[in-house]
Amino acid sequence: MKKHDAHQVLVACVTEHKADFYRLAFSYVKNQEDALDIVQESIKKALISMDSIKDIQSIKSWLYKIVVRTAIDFLRKHKRLTLMDDEALEYLSSGREDQYKDIDLKQAMDQLPVKYKTIIILRFFEDLKMDEIAEIIEENVNTVKTRLYRGLNLLRITMTEEDLEQ
């Protein structure tokens, strides 16, 4: 495939899925400005490393992978907690109906280790299949299933503890 064609496919994918990429970045940083920065940085990285994509059909998964890594790098670099403001919460809730309606779920998700949180977000909030998630995080499908199971168990334990505290 010619470089020009790959560029067009990349631009089309970014245009079609920009809200998904933003929502994914936001789920990590809980801040509109930082999420936009992460998406912008991810697009920049994608444009720079466009030659490294082997299969143009998997460009969406490739972009998800870049957004996840960029968000995790951002968190490591800044090591700070951010609160979700009302404007951002309203913006997110205008996307999908099930986006963090229960604040306890949001708090429990924030406490999960990143490796579990990423899989739960990609599976349930971005509605990706297990093999797509495996490709994004560069693990085999069995590892993804195990982490999903453990993450859901941690989430259940966290939710139960929070319920008991109230």
TrEMBL record:
Gene3D superfamilies for this protein: 1.10.1740.10, Winged helix-like DNA-binding domain superfamily/Winged helix DNA-binding domain (1.10.10.10)
UniProt-listed GO biological process terms: DNA-templated transcription initiation; response to stress
Regions annotated as coiled coil: none
GO molecular function, one term: sigma factor activity
CDD domains on file: Sigma70_r4
Start and end residues of each RNA polymerase sigma-70 region domain: 14-80
Keyword list, A-Z: DNA-binding, Sigma factor, Transcription, Transcription regulation
Record-linked Pfam families: Sigma70_r2, Sigma70_r4_2
KW DNA-binding (keyword) present: yes
Domain RNA polymerase sigma factor 70 region 4 type residues, every copy: 105-153
InterPro entries: RNA_pol_sigma-70-like (IPR039425), RNA_pol_sigma-70_dom (IPR014284), RNA_pol_sigma70_ECF_CS (IPR000838), RNA_pol_sigma70_r2 (IPR007627), RNA_pol_sigma70_r4_t2 (IPR013249), RNA_pol_sigma_r2 (IPR013325), RNA_pol_sigma_r3/r4-like (IPR013324), WH-like_DNA-bd_sf (IPR036388)
Domain of life assignment: Bacteria
Family: Belongs to the sigma-70 factor family. ECF subfamily.
UniProt-recorded name of the protein: RNA polymerase sigma factor
Source species of the chain: Priestia aryabhattai
